Amino acid sequence: MKRSEINEIMAEADGFMRRFGFTLPPFAYWTPDEMRARKDQAAAVIEGRMGWDITDYGQGRYDEMGLFLFTLRNGRLADLQRGGGMCYAEKLLISKHDQLSPMHSHYLKAEDIINRGGATLAVELFGSAPDGSFDGKAGGRVMCDGIARDFAPGEVLMLAPGESVTLMPGDWHAFWGEGGDVLIGEVSTVNDDETDNWFREPIGRFAEIDEDVAPTHLLVSDYGRWLA
Question: Of 111, 182, 194, 217, whose CB neighbour count within 10 A is largest?
């Protein structure tokens, strides 16, 4: 992806979120120079990979296969492993009209996926084999707003604004905006996008970036290189 495209997506996404009453935390608007200058103060932000995340899954087709994310808060894996402390994470996502977030599951993370506003959120579901891998013939059971719901393999849930689905490790899922763009909330256990995404197809999690212009704000995937 071109950096100029990423900058434009950030500005557009900020406006879209504000339409539904969501304002990002102050660090979201720091310039790269400000982030560098305050990196010691913002150690928890950087180590927790909180912030902007825009991906085309390495496929170069963002409008067709991609996702906007902003990690608002993220807990500590050590707390999760010992069973107490900050064991949770929260994100805002934007899934554009017919923009696919491809089929995947998580090894560790349980998550509530919530339609926070906009169009319908379509979530395609499959169950898993005993080892957790994708099984195209397996259905399963999820919770939708606290109500148990059985699903057939490949069934698509249509979540209107305010509706949600709870996904556990082994619940394979893909999603997109149906009929328009959707603002999505994600509330989950501690999030690790570098190791906890299990994709059905061999694709990447992060975009490769063509630095055609300077970044407006850093992506979480920039932190290691820009803040070293």
Answer: 182
**Residue 181 near residue 16, CB atoms below 8 Å:** yes
- Residue-level pLDDT at 143: 98
Mean pLDDT for 110-114 is: 98
Q: Is 43 exposed, middle or buried (0-12, 13-18, 19+ CB in 10 A)?
A: exposed
Q: How far apart are CA 127 and CA 138, in angstroms?
A: 5
pLDDT score of 114: 98
- CATH 2.40.100.10: does it fit domain 3-226? no
Contact 183, 22 (CB under 8 A): yes
What residues contact 112, with CB distance under 8 A and at least 6 apart?
Answer: 164, 165, 166, 167, 185, 186, 187, 188
Enumerate the domain spans of the chain.
3-226
